[in-house]
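User: tokens in, sequence out, please.
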């Protein structure tokens, strides 16, 4: 059916599904950054097929593994961009770039530096009981780098800082997705 033949309601349903899928992909990054297992549980179906190279298995088994990795870091920030997706009924294919930045230590006089990783996500999502979730994900790493971190001094010292985030961060409940 061509776009011209679809009703406004059909086109709106597609846009709503696409927006819901983009939210799932963004929620993955937020769940890791804010150590939010409740949110991560909504991202992956328990029976999802996950392949990160270092981990291959179910969504159920992946969630605590990836959360333990994130908890081992002092600070982290994940981004998903350039999302492309195609929805067919209650199934969708999606791809996106990812960039993650992490630091093992927090509030040191001379920071250790930031680890930066970039890559791709190749996802299949399914809509079950009216909710979208990832049913398969393959992570493809492009590369990583260690970059120096500068101490925040002078005027920069007055900036709000995230601080330690190995556990659920106290600012988490102020985020608009909660």
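Assistant: Sequence out:
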């Amino acid at each position: 059916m061509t776009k011209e033949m679809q009703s406004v309601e059909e086109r709106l349903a597609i846009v709503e599904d696409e927006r819901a899928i983009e939210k799932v992909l963004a929620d993955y990054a937020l769940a890791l950054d804010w150590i939010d297992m409740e949110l991560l549980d909504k991202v992956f179906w328990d029976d999802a097929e996950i392949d990160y190279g270092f981990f291959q298995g179910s969504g159920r088994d992946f969630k605590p593994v990836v959360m333990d990795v994130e908890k081992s870091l002092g600070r982290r920030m994940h981004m998903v961009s350039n999302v492309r997706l195609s929805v067919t009924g209650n199934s969708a294919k999606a791809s996106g770039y990812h960039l993650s930045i992490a630091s093992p230590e927090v509030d040191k006089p001379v920071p250790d530096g930031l680890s930066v990783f970039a890559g791709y996500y190749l996802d299949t999502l399914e809509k079950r009981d009216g909710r979208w979730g990832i049913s398969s994900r393959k992570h493809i790493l492009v590369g990583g780098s260690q970059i120096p971190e500068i101490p925040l001094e002078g005027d920069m010292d007055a900036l709000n800082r995230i601080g330690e985030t190995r556990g659920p961060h106290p600012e988490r409940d102020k985020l608009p997705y909660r």
